[in-house]
């Protein structure tokens, strides 16, 4: 019974008034990207766009995005919950409502948002609800947090296209990806930033469905 109660708590978003209180000060974190040396918190080059993606454990998710040409910097953190400036331990309790997300700052003249959405859907299974594989909890849910109406349009079209592709491939699951206006992003602790570059043999729980996402749009050049 205790195990079932813990499982239920971790997969249920905290109701109003239930979330952990958090803190007023941001958590200390890295200043620069461990791989490319660019500043995690900016300033970003003129014309840079940002978006947030949640697709399971943020260690592997971040690595998928920092490899993309046109991505200026990536950072991991917490978003779409209630607790201000949460710690990793707090997020893991299910008491903050936050998702583990990747901040992607990119040059839309080199890589368009549709390409990032395609990568997002192909890098995880977006039909699993509050989990990704063996990782269970609200922080592992699938989510795209958009910075503009155009990003929302592309994200919604990508979701619909991938749902059709899954059905055509014989997958019965329904995509549970939430698409929301970008909420406050809280940078995760230093040791989480670019974790798999610092720890090449570290855990990575990402796994897709094996189905290609037919977004149909390509980078500008």
Automatic annotation (TrEMBL):
SUPFAM superfamilies: Peptide methionine sulfoxide reductase. The active site is at 57. InterPro entries: Met_Sox_Rdtase_MsrA_dom, Met_Sox_Rdtase_MsrA_sf, MsrA_MetSO_reductase. Its EC number is 1.8.4.11. Residues 50-204 form the Peptide methionine sulphoxide reductase MsrA domain. It is an enzyme of class 1 (oxidoreductase). It holds the Pfam family PMSR. The keyword Oxidoreductase applies. GO terms for molecular function: peptide-methionine (S)-S-oxide reductase activity. Keywords: Oxidoreductase. One of its GO terms (cellular component) is cytoplasm. Coiled coil: none annotated. It catalyses: L-methionyl-[protein] + [thioredoxin]-disulfide + H2O = L-methionyl-(S)-S-oxide-[protein] + [thioredoxin]-dithiol; [thioredoxin]-disulfide + L-methionine + H2O = L-methionine (S)-S-oxide + [thioredoxin]-dithiol. GO terms for biological process: cellular response to oxidative stress. It comes from the Bacteria. Belongs to the MsrA Met sulfoxide reductase family. Has an important function as a repair enzyme for proteins that have been inactivated by oxidation. Catalyzes the reversible oxidation-reduction of methionine sulfoxide in proteins to methionine. HAMAP family: MsrA. This is Peptide methionine sulfoxide reductase MsrA. It comes from Plantimonas leprariae.
